[in-house]
Amino acid sequence: MLQIILMILKIIGTIVLVLIGALLLILAVVLIVPVRYRLSVQWEEEFHLNGTVSWLLHVFHTRISMENTEPHIRVRIFGFVIYDNEKPGRHRSFKTAAKAGETKGPDTKKAVYELPEEKDAAMDHTGIETRENPVDTLETPDTNFFNTERHKDKPKRETLWERVLAKIRSIRNRISRFFKGLANRILKLCQSFAEQKRKAGLILEFIRDELNREGFQYTFSSIRKLLKHILPTKLRASIVYGTGDPCSTGQILGVFGMLYGLYGDKLSVTPDFESQRFAGDLDAKGRIRLITILIIVIKLMLDRRFKQLRCNLKTLKEAL
To answer: Where are the strands (E) in the chain, listed by range?
Structure first.
């Protein structure tokens, strides 16, 4: 009995170890095997784009192509197409449902006529409608109203001196309101200037802090490493341009010459001094490895300088 129990436990342990090993193998494959991409673009009179994304020896493969404004996306797994936006049978059910709705005739319903309602009026036994004659009541005018209006006291006319005094008081009130408003505006402006000066001082103090500088430097270096890993490892581009004016074409060529240190031999620029045109092509290749991205992000999140920078940023936001 004990041997049977031990054998069952051994089998269960072996199955668990196999499952754990398979999961670790899948995780290692996902982390280590890179996702490869390639992009090819051509534009002159028409725009053409072709791109591919593949993983694990093209087990997962996606192709994107575009002619002017019509994209075509196809996804394959183990060579089988699982998604194609131009597949003929994709909208078949919707089309058949629409056709069935169009061919179906409208329902014929019998017209139902309703008799008009009888008039709600009182009639006598002879069938003649009887109505009550309205009695017009005329109201007698209120003579007391005219009498009170007639004997109402007329308003007293102000003297010249009183009008002058009222004018002087209104001018004085306007002047006092003007100076009070001006004083309030100046006070608000001074307070705003002092507040902005305080905020600027806090920001300058934050930037000049040595720990914050180290945190910024490490953060920017991590972002640079991340972009270097994601961006294409092989890039080739060529541009043919012309403005129709030799002077402006030469000026643009001078700008490209000043920026040569940024793109180097990855970009070829050909000016056309005779005609107005713009054409070019681009070919880029790259790969993205998930484990590299995780290492960069985890190292950044666990770094002491980055943690201190985040804490100081939070304190600065609260102070502002």
So the answer is: 35-43, 47-55, 60-67, 70-77, 80-84, 234-243, 267-271, 276-288
Residue 283 sits in the same domain as residue 229:
yes
pLDDT of residue 88: 63
- Is 276 found in the same domain as 223? yes
Nearest to 67, CA basis, from 86, 46, 53, 87: 46
Residue 25 is assigned to a structural domain of this protein:
no
The verdict on 234 and 282 lying in the same domain is yes
How many Å apart are CA 30 and CA 2, to the nearest integer?
Answer: 42
Per the structure, how many domains does the chain have?
A: 3
Other residues' Cβ atoms within 10 Å of the Cβ of residue 215: 22
Which pLDDT score is estimated for 304? 92
Is residue 115 in some structural domain? no
- Residue type at position 219: T
Low-confidence ranges of the chain (pLDDT < 50): 90-100, 103-152
Q: Do 193 and 256 have their domain in common?
A: no
Place of tokens 């994709």: 90
CA distance 286 to 51: 12
- Amino acid 286 reads G
Domain around 65: 34-86
Tokens 């936006």 correspond to what residue?
85
List the one residue out of 314, 320, 309, 282 whose CA is nearest residue 39.
282
According to DSSP, residue 46 is labeled S
- pLDDT recorded at residue 158: 67
Q: Look at the block and give the residue holding tokens 């031990």.
A: 6
Side chain identity, residue 173: N
**pLDDT attached to residue 138:** 42
- Out of 60, 86, 112, a domain closes at 86
